[in-house]
């Protein structure tokens, strides 16, 4: 009995706070989102004394940005949006872009662009040149997340009328879950004339949520709204349905909400599986890229090259250098960086082979130690040349962001491209090994060095070229990894263990094995991670590989035949 | 046999000669004061620590231009512990016993400090530690000029609770002592503020973690359940860049789920395009963007010294700056470089900090500092959005952990103890554990 009472109390408490929240929300947001509201035009007369021109009113509001108090600034943003002055919108955009400055010397608010010498200042309204200021003598007006959101919401309401349907959809998306009456009016107005079904769908969802959030709405209205949003994956929909399920006093509504939630959960689960799969493939492709060069040098030639990671690092630094050489070419510089990185790493690889490894064939322990030394030398060399600080590689526009498939499922572009890229590299390498003369020689030397030499193959040269090929591919991997992680002296360090893991697991000397191993380890890691955490997932995968190698020392796909017996 | 004897004799001779040389070195060194610099110049931590080495060298150069300390020039002795924790202890021993330095500025990670700690205590050296850390420590021989948890983590969470109205928290950190202790303190603090256990998600990742896809997507899901959510990040070092890249790629905007970080400063951001990160937060005691005459001058000096106007300044640099100036003042006050005298003179020393206030060294060897909350801007700098009214005195022992609730550190008479239990009125030695 007391438990039931407690439950009732909790329910009461919950609904009480929810009502308080909903009723408080409009008061909070009031006026924040009024830029495009129809009555926005005739409001300023209330706040501005008669006889004061629009421009002066705007200047008074701008002066408020000198304050450090964010509430004062919020008020200023509101009055500027309501002022109806033609510069209003541009000024708010400037505020968002940090181009609205507080000139400390003149104690005034101006527009400014940063240049080599400092700031070039312009008047905020007339846009006339008003002099300049030193770099630290003027500073952008500081806004915080709340103000940024306020401005963006204001902009979204305006953008509902944008001729571009994508912009309209994005604007509507931002307003989903917003219960400000002004916003809802704007959405309703738009709903009536919207022709694009996608945009209309988002607006419908937003308005249906508003109905469900409205304490004054009728039961049948709410039931209709629940039916309408039942298939939506929007998180706001799920939250409002959960609230209705917990708070509604009508059994019909609770049932409807419950049914809709179950439907949503089922769909969500399906997309979560897809998510995990994508993450796994993406991790797998990174492992594949890092390991595939090693699959050649270690797998085919049998050289334990501890400097493999540093060859990847060199590729990443090449990307950085190429971007420095073409400062305006961020969008296409990767295309230059790819062959450049291949060449740089390949040349360094050949030098390592000719200078060190050549003398140590057949002595794996010494090769291991010598190449480890080389890796330290390369790391420190990079520290001396580029400084120990990480370097920033710019991600091109086409690789940023995500392909939004629905509100809960998206594929990030950089990962998507890297999966494709890893596969291209893999098949290109297969082609080289299977279809070219070098490939034939490489395979011949790795299968039986003595016979190959007897057939007139210069095994020394083939060794150098094979090592160069493996190293060059490591360089290409570096270009891709530069998009995902830090470009710093320790970059290679992070991937060397993973690379060996993949090659050994897949079976030494088998490229298909490397591919399978990379993807299965990637996916396994991502399945375990949510359950066990990132640290434990890594440990579990490592333990699994150790046990697996105990059972099958030659990996997933062991080489057969005489070559394997050596 | 004969040759061996001979060589032994030779060895002895060589030993005497070496002794004489080092003795003469000592005589020569009498008119300089030696300052040890114990920061990694190679290995993983070089990225952060090499900057602090440069800062100390710059401060020494500046002090020498002013005529040194007590009429003597300062002479830096730089060693490289190479991000190798046991090597920190060896190098510290070398600095104190062989190089005879009077003071050491050094360490970054807590592990390195813990490894140096027994050495400076045994040899009665003096260490200035300039990085924010997890607290729960106070040594007679160490001065902590970085922030304790109550000077960074607690005010940051207060900002999230009070100013942003956050109701759900993700505590994400790298798996080692600083994040684990800080998160333990924060968890206890949040629960004392009425945040339910279900509304706190704790996640640890290995050092240098680079694949953040599933974690970011889980955070998004956790934050999408209707309550306003924030991430409190104690993610360390290199792992931050891929973390922030993933945040921006998955479209996790700061106005939806803000991330407040304790280990991300200007220097960490100089490796990334901060456009998509605008609005994410960090809590520190100093930001380069703070506009004060002291700070402007410091930045100008730094740019002159390093010869690169793009190099940023950050919080541990300010901590080094304060620590160095305090040490100079204390030496002049004590009129000696003797560890005990300087340590005594240190307590109560005041120097201006770079954000327009005054730093005071307290009895527990921690500083009083202001706490600033900054939002990331698109130029890689922070804009201060909140600031404590005055300075916050550093608390060596957290009040929110049951084990250290009753402990205080006080290095003045009559207590003179690093972990004094106020309940039982006993001293537990220099450090707990």
UniProtKB/TrEMBL annotation, chain B:
| Signal peptide residues on this chain, from the entry's feature table | 1-29
Q: Which residues form a coiled coil?
A: none
Asked whether the keyword Zinc is assigned, the reply is no
Q: Which Gene3D superfamilies match?
A: 3.40.50.2300
What InterPro entries does its record include?
ABC_urea-bd_UrtA, Peripla_BP_I
Q: Which UniProt keywords apply?
A: Signal
This chain's protein is named: Branched-chain amino acid ABC transporter
Lineage, broadest ranks: Bacteria, Pseudomonadati, Pseudomonadota, Gammaproteobacteria, Oceanospirillales
């Amino acid at each position: 009995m007391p438990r039931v009472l407690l439950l009732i109390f909790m329910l009461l408490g919950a609904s009480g706070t929810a009502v308080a929240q909903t009723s408080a929300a409009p008061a909070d947001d009031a006026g924040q989102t009024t830029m495009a509201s129809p009555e926005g035009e005739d409001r300023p007369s209330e706040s501005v004394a008669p006889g004061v021109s629009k421009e002066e009113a705007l200047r008074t509001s701008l002066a408020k940005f000198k304050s450090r108090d964010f509430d004062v600034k919020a008020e200023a943003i509101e009055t500027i949006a309501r002022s109806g002055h033609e510069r209003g919108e541009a000024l708010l955009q400037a505020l968002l872009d940090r181009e609205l400055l507080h000139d400390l010397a003149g104690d005034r608010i101006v527009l400014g662009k940063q240049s080599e010498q400092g700031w070039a200042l312009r008047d905020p309204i007339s846009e006339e040149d008003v002099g300049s200021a030193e770099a630290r003598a003027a500073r952008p007006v500081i806004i915080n997340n709340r103000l940024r959101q306020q401005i963006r919401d204001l902009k979204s309401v305006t953008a509902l009328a944008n001729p571009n349907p994508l912009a309209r959809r994005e604007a509507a998306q931002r307003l989903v879950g917003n219960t400000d009456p002004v916003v809802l009016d704007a959405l309703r107005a738009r709903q009536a004339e919207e022709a694009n079904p996608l945009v209309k769908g988002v607006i419908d969802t937003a308005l249906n949520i508003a109905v469900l959030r409205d304490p004054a709405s009728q039961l049948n209205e709410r039931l209709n709204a629940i039916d309408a949003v039942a298939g939506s994956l929007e998180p706001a929909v799920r939250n409002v349905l959960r609230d209705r399920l917990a708070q509604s006093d009508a059994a019909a509504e609770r049932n409807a909400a419950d049914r809709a939630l179950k439907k949503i959960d089922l769909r969500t689960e399906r997309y979560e599986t897809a998510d995990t799969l994508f993450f796994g493939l993406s991790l797998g492709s990174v492992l594949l890229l890092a390991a595939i060069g090693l699959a050649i040098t270690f797998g085919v030639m049998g050289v334990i090259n501890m400097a493999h990671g540093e060859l990847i690092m060199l590729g990443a630094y090449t990307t950085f250098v190429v971007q420095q050489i073409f400062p305006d070419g961020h969008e296409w510089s990767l295309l230059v960086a790819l062959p450049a990185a291949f060449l740089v790493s390949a040349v360094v690889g050949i030098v390592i082979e000719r200078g060190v490894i050549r003398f140590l064939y057949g002595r794996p322990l010494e090769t291991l130690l010598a190449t480890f030394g080389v890796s330290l030398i390369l790391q420190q060399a990079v520290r001396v040349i580029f400084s120990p600080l990480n370097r920033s590689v710019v991600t091109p526009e086409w690789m940023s962001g995500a392909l939004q498939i629905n509100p809960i499922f998206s594929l990030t572009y950089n990962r998507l491209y890297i999966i494709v890229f890893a596969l291209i590299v893999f098949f290109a390498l297969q082609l080289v090994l299977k279809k070219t003369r070098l490939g034939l020689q490489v395979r011949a030397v790795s299968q039986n060095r003595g016979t190959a030499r007897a057939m007139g193959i210069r095994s020394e040269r083939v060794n150098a070229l094979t090592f160069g090929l493996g190293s060059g591919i490591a360089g290409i991997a570096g270009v891709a990894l530069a998009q995902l992680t830090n470009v710093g002296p320790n970059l290679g360090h992070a991937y060397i263990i993973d690379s060996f893991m993949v090659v050994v697991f897949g079976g030494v000397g088998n490229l298909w094995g490397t591919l399978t191993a990379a993807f299965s380890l990637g996916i396994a890691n991502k399945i375990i991670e949510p359950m066990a955490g990132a640290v434990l997932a890594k440990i579990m995968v490592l333990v699994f590989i150790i046990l697996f190698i105990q059972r099958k020392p030659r990996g997933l796909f062991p080489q057969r035949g005489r070559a394997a017996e050596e | 046999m004969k040759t061996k004897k001979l060589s032994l004799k030779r060895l002895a001779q060589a030993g005497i000669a070496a002794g004489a040389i080092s003795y003469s070195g000592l005589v020569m060194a009498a008119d300089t004061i030696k300052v040890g610099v114990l920061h990694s110049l190679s290995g993983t931590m070089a990225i952060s620590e090499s900057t602090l080495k440069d800062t100390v060298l710059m401060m020494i150069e500046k002090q020498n231009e002013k005529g040194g300390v007590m009429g003597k020039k300062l002479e830096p002795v730089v060693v490289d512990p190479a991000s190798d924790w046991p090597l920190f202890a060896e190098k510290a021993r070398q600095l104190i016993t062989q190089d005879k330095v009077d003071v050491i500025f050094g360490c970054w990670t807590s592990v390195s400090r813990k490894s140096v700690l027994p050495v400076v205590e045994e040899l009665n050296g003096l260490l200035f530690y300039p990085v924010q850390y997890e607290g729960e420590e106070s040594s007679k021989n160490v001065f902590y000029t970085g922030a304790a948890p109550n000077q960074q983590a607690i005010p940051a969470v207060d900002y999230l609770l009070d100013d942003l109205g956050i109701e759900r928290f993700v505590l994400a950190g790298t798996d080692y002592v600083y994040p684990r202790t800080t998160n333990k303190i924060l968890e206890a603090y949040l629960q004392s503020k009425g945040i339910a256990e279900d509304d706190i998600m704790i996640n640890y990742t290995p050092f240098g973690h680079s694949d953040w896809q599933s974690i970011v997507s889980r955070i998004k899901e956790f934050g999408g359940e209707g309550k306003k959510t924030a991430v409190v990040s104690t993610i360390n070092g290199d792992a931050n860049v891929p973390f922030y890249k993933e945040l921006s790629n998955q479209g996790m905007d700061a106005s939806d789920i803000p991330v407040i970080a304790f280990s991300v400063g200007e220097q960490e951001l100089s490796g990334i395009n901060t456009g998509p990160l605008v609005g994410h937060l960090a809590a520190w005691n100093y930001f380069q963007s703070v506009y004060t005459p002291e700070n402007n001058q410091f930045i100008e000096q730094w740019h002159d010294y390093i010869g690169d106007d793009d190099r940023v300044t950050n919080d541990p640099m300010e901590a080094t700056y304060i620590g160095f100036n305090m040490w100079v003042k204390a030496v002049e006050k004590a009129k000696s470089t003797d560890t005990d005298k300087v340590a005594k003179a240190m307590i109560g020393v005041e120097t201006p900090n770079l954000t327009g206030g005054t730093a005071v060294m307290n009895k527990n060897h921690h500083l009083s500092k202001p706490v600033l909350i900054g939002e990331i801007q698109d130029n890689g700098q922070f804009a201060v959005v909140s600031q404590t009214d005055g300075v916050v005195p550093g608390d060596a022992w957290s009040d929110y952990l049951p084990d250290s609730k009753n402990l205080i550190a006080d290095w003045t008479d009559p207590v003179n103890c690093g972990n004094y239990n106020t309940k039982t009125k006993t001293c537990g030695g220099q450090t707990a554990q």
